[in-house]
Specification:
This protein has 303 residues and is an alpha/beta fold. The protein is 42% helix and 24% strand. The strands form four sheets. The chain has a five-stranded mixed beta sheet with strand order 4-3-5-13-6, sandwiched between helices. A four-stranded mixed beta sheet has the order 8-12-7-11, with helices on one face. Strands 1-2 form a two-stranded antiparallel sheet. Helix 7 links the parallel strand 9 and strand 10.
Length: 303
């Protein structure tokens, strides 16, 4: 039965001797003299109540107990060194975990870009994205379930700070067989009386509100055929020839055989935006400052 606990330095001494099988070389490796090294080994053996080495004037070798202990001791040292390394990285903001919520449409183009950029810039940061609605993201930032969030609007809350990272126009999604597919660009007035695939009020609220406001201001009256909540679903319906749609420009990353995109003349206020919010307790920490900077830099072409 062990008589007392052992020290981390004693493990280092043991591993050095076990690997060198020579006290002089092990002492040189540890930048110390042989007498204190021998004493550390004796203290360790006393703590374990086991003999770890057989030694005489001619040789040093591990006992069965020493051979068995070497693997565990080496593993402890490796994990301890790794822990120290990660702690130092975390203090500099180079390591840690980031839980980020994002609205579904951000998953088409922006989340893949962010994940790729963070893996390159901050390889020790674990990025955990979760698809959510904007109001869910805000609630989760306040409660601490999320660290960061990409939302469509910067909803005012005294504890949440937002920066705009995306401000892009819309494009017209057109069935490949539609006459507008043969033109280079379109006008909003081309939507008058056309079958239109819109965003639903329940989970596509922001994009729906943007389009509704512009249609009212520009006196545009498309014939709304169907309404769905997600951009992927909107484009799938257009792909099957069921109507036209206005979608954020980044949605062009989605390719379908029966679907083409066309630039469309539009007022400056018609924009698809994304805001990056950070939980209050994380905003000023080194890691989250670096993550925020990396995200802003990655999405700069879309501002």
């Amino acid at each position: 039965m062990a008589k007392s606990t052992f020290e981390f330095f004693q493990l280092r001494c043991f591993v050095a001797v076990a690997e060198e099988l020579n006290f002089r070389r092990a002492a040189e490796r540890l930048n110390m003299t042989q007498p204190p090294l021998s004493r550390q080994i004796k203290l360790l053996e006393h703590a374990l109540d086991e003999t770890l080495f057989e030694r005489n004037n001619r040789m040093v070798r591990l006992t069965p107990a020493g051979e068995n202990f070497l693997g565990s001791a080496s593993d402890i040292l490796t994990r301890a060194e790794r822990a120290v390394f990660l702690a130092r990285q975390a203090s500099r903001g180079d390591a840690g975990d980031v839980a980020i919520g994002f609205v579904p449409s951000a998953g088409i183009e922006f989340i893949p870009r962010i994940v790729t950029a963070l893996r390159e810039a901050l390889p020790q940061v674990t990025f955990k994205p979760t698809e959510m609605m904007s109001y869910e993201i805000i609630e989760s930032l306040i409660s601490g379930r999320l660290d960061m969030g990409l939302t469509r609007t910067a909803r005012r809350h005294p504890e949440i700070e937002h920066i705009r990272v995306v401000n892009e126009p819309f494009v017209l999604a057109v069935p490949a067989e539609h006459p507008l597919a043969k033109t280079r660009s379109a006008k909003l007035t081309d939507l008058n009386d056309e079958a239109f695939i819109g965003y639903s009020a329940d989970r596509g609220g922001f994009l729906r509100e943007q389009l509704a406001a512009v249609f009212a201001n520009e006196d545009i009256e498309p014939a709304v055929a169907l309404e769905v909540s997600q951009t992927m679903s909107v484009l799938a319906l257009v792909n099957h020839g069921l109507g036209l749609a206005l979608v954020p420009r980044s949605a062009q990353a989605i390719k379908m055989d029966g679907l083409v995109y066309r630039e469309v003349e539009q007022p400056a206020q018609l924009r698809s935006t994304l805001y990056l919010g950070t939980a209050p307790k994380k905003r000023d920490t080194p890691m989250f400052q670096k993550v925020s900077e990396a995200i802003a830099k990655t999405l700069a072409p879309f501002r």
